[in-house]
Design goal:
With about 325 residues, the protein is of the alpha+beta class. The chain has a single domain, classed as Beta-lactamase, CATH 3.40.710.10. A hairpin with a 2-residue loop joins strand 7 and strand 8. The chain starts with 6 loop residues before the first helix and ends in a 23-residue tail after the last helix.
Length: about 325
């Protein structure tokens, strides 16, 4: 007895030969079309990530718009290179955050002058400077510090005496030239610390959120005109414990290589937040307003909330131990 075929197949057998020949190809085309209409897992998850990215961008914009002065923010995902920007190209006075460029020039110069870091400068009345720091209260001629120690005081205590000692040793023009070579030509010193008369003339120390972030990216990647060991020492100094609104928004267990700044009417921070699995750069600047520190704190909170969601997450948003995740490719800069 002949086998019985389903009615659909029996009908297909009665079709003309040319049509029967094309049936497999028609079926294959239908499957491809259906496949295109159904989003793949990766495409679907891109939509999820897009929602998180949009939320962070909106939150940063809200922080800036709530502030009663003027503020700018630039955030960089060091894993995939994604950037979040609000008024990142505005030029702001820097207060003490720009002292990072002095630190970089010191270690760059020490590559060809090995004794430079150990050079000692006596703390006399002639070099002591007012404002932030602790060295201005020491006795005249009672102590001497190496230039490397001055760099530590400059970063950790924002010591203005140490800052001016280093500017005298290195040269303001040379510090500015280094910043320009790192892709930050608008990041400039125009005066030493602390000189209200020069500030009143408009001789302010300046940068933009985007340029400050670019410098911090170079530090994070050790893309600097110095050895890997010198870069590691720079990062180590920047990560020494210190306070500030950016630090307060991130758990104490997470290291941050950063320098905050603040003078009347101005608040700034340049930071690399070394969040395991999702490090990022944060640059915030504010002026003309009241509590600029609130802008720094709120921007830091928003950035940490976003990146902590991505740290340790698979492409589908589930969490696994960091060591199980593949190492990401370096972002294109």
């Amino acid at each position: 007895m002949p086998r019985s075929f389903p009615s659909s197949l029996r009908r297909a057998r009665n079709l003309p030969g040319s049509v029967r020949t094309r049936l497999p190809f028609l079926a294959m085309g239908l499957l491809v079309t259906v496949g295109l209409l159904v989003p793949s897992g990766s495409a679907a998850q891109e939509a999820h990530l897009g929602i998180l990215e949009e939320r962070l961008q909106n939150e940063l914009e809200a922080v800036v718009h709530r502030f009663d002065g003027v503020a700018g923010i630039h955030v960089v995902d060091l894993t995939d290179g994604r950037r979040f920007d609000v008024r990142g190209d505005l030029i702001f006075p820097q207060a003490s955050a720009i002292k990072i460029t002095i630190l970089l020039e010191l270690f760059r110069r020490a590559e060809t002058d090995p004794g430079l870091l150990r050079k000692r400068v006596e703390l006399t009345e002639a070099v002591r400077t007012g404002g932030s720091g602790v060295l201005n209260i020491l006795t005249d001629g009672g102590s001497a510090l190496s230039l490397e120690d001055h760099a530590i005081y400059m970063i950790v205590y924002s010591d203005n005496t140490s800052t001016n000692v280093l500017l005298d040793e290195l040269g303001m023009a040379e510090v500015n030239a280094l910043a320009a070579s790192l892709g930050a030509p608008q990041t400039i010193f125009q005066r030493k610390m602390i000189q209200p008369e020069a500030s009143a003339r408009g001789d302010e120390n300046l940068s933009t959120p985007r340029e400050a972030a670019r410098i911090m990216e170079r530090i994070a990647a050790c893309e600097l005109p110095m050895s890997a060991a010198a870069c590691a020492r720079v990062t180590e100094i920047l990560a020494l414990p210190k306070g500030g609104p950016a630090r307060a928004a991130v758990p104490a267990s997470i290291p941050i290589a950063f320098k905050p700044g603040g003078i009347t009417g101005v608040a700034t921070v340049w930071a690399v937040v070394q969040l395991p699995g999702r490090p990022y750069v944060l640059s915030v600047m504010a002026n003309y307003g009241g509590d600029g520190g609130s802008v720094v704190r709120e921007a830091s909170e928003a950035a940490y909330s976003y990146f902590s969601k991505l740290a340790g997450a698979t492409p589908y948003g589930t969490r696994v131990p960091l060591e199980l995740l593949p190492s990401p490719s370096p972002p294109n800069r």
